[in-house]
Write a structure and sequence with these properties.
Elements lengths: L1 H29 L2 H19 L5 H25 L1 H6 L15 H22 L2 H25 L3 H9 L2 H10 L4 H22 L3 H7 L4 H4 L2 H21 L8 H23 L3 H27 L1
Helix pairs in contact: 2-3, 2-8, 2-14, 3-5, 3-6, 3-8, 5-6, 6-7, 6-8, 7-9, 8-9, 9-12, 9-14, 12-13, 13-14
């Protein structure tokens, strides 16, 4: 009998541990951690460029941690408000809220708690400007993009992308206490990068968006017009990326990297314009991630030289 009771206790403990781990993983997924990685990629190089070297490790960690917490809160609220849409889309049906892993109200409270905690942490450890800019990006993403733009206009990604483009500005403000021209150029780079990056993905999921009633560009304007717009924004992106050479302290290394990476971006964009294959759009989507990461790595490296 004692052995049976011990075995039952072990089984119960194992089940509880599995449930706890599952719940923790579900809450982590609410924050969309893969998206937050892009925040880190664009924040730290901007801080290095603003400093002209390497800022204090604590300042970089505090800025990235606070920004990541607020961004995670914004993503959690996005999943709360988009739960009706996510239920209808194959790509998002397994998200924690539509999958029934987390109750909607708990997801909303979790998102608000993260936003508040991140804001006060940044205000305490960095400065009020960086904290205010981060909170502004949070509000824009949740209130403007999620609740209004996403459901009403095919320009949702074009305008809404501004929220995801704030990390370089926040990083610059964390170091200097102000917003400089180089920060605004980096903001423009990420803003212009967002439409071709996301439209390349949405071309392969247009039926999902149509089913959910989301006016994404491929649904409203059609695939060919979407490919044409991708080319237009790609050209603008490459042009703006080169401006950083003239309005900051980056030099030849960044110029060479921006030129080569931009040529690759244009290659995949024009290739997609001539092809209707899912592979072509997938290739551009994947390259766009590498492009942004390597471009900002070039900023960081050049700032040290």
């Amino acid at each position: 009998m004692a052995f049976a009771e011990m075995l039952s206790a072990v089984t119960t403990t194992t089940r509880v541990a599995r449930d706890v781990n599952g719940a923790l993983l579900a809450y982590l997924r609410l924050t969309k951690p893969r998206i937050i990685v892009l925040l880190v990629i664009t924040t730290v190089p901007a801080m290095m460029l603003a400093d002209g070297g390497v800022p204090s490790l604590w300042l970089m960690l505090a800025t990235v941690l606070g920004g990541s917490v607020v961004a995670g809160g914004a993503n959690a609220l996005n999943m709360y408000f988009d739960r009706d849409i996510d239920e209808l889309m194959l790509r998002t049906q397994d998200r924690p809220v539509p999958a029934g892993q987390i109750e909607p109200e708990k997801a909303a409270l979790f998102g608000l708690a993260l936003a508040a905690a991140g804001f006060f942490f940044l205000q305490w450890t960095v400065n009020l400007l960086a904290a205010g800019l981060t909170l502004g990006a949070f509000a824009f993403y949740v209130l403007i993009y999620t609740l209004v733009l996403k459901r009403t206009t095919p320009l949702n990604i074009v305008i809404g992308g501004a929220a995801g483009a704030m990390p370089p500005v926040i990083g610059w403000a964390a170091v200097t206490g102000e917003v400089g021209v180089p920060a605004l150029i980096m903001f423009a780079i990420v803003t212009l990068w967002t439409p071709p990056h996301f439209w390349a993905l949405s071309l392969n999921y247009s039926s999902d968006y149509q089913r959910a009633g989301v006016p994404m560009l491929p649904v409203v304007a059609g695939p060919q017009e979407t490919r044409r717009q991708i080319v237009i924004y790609s050209v603008a992106l490459v042009a703006v990326s080169l401006l950083l050479t003239f309005w900051s302290d980056v030099g030849f290394l960044y110029l060479a990297a921006a030129t080569l990476l931009g040529a690759g971006f244009l290659y995949f964009a024009f290739r997609l314009l001539r092809s209707s294959s899912a592979r072509a759009s997938g290739d551009l989507f994947r390259y766009s991630i590498a492009y942004l990461a390597l471009l900002f790595v070039a900023i960081a490296v050049d700032a040290q030289l």
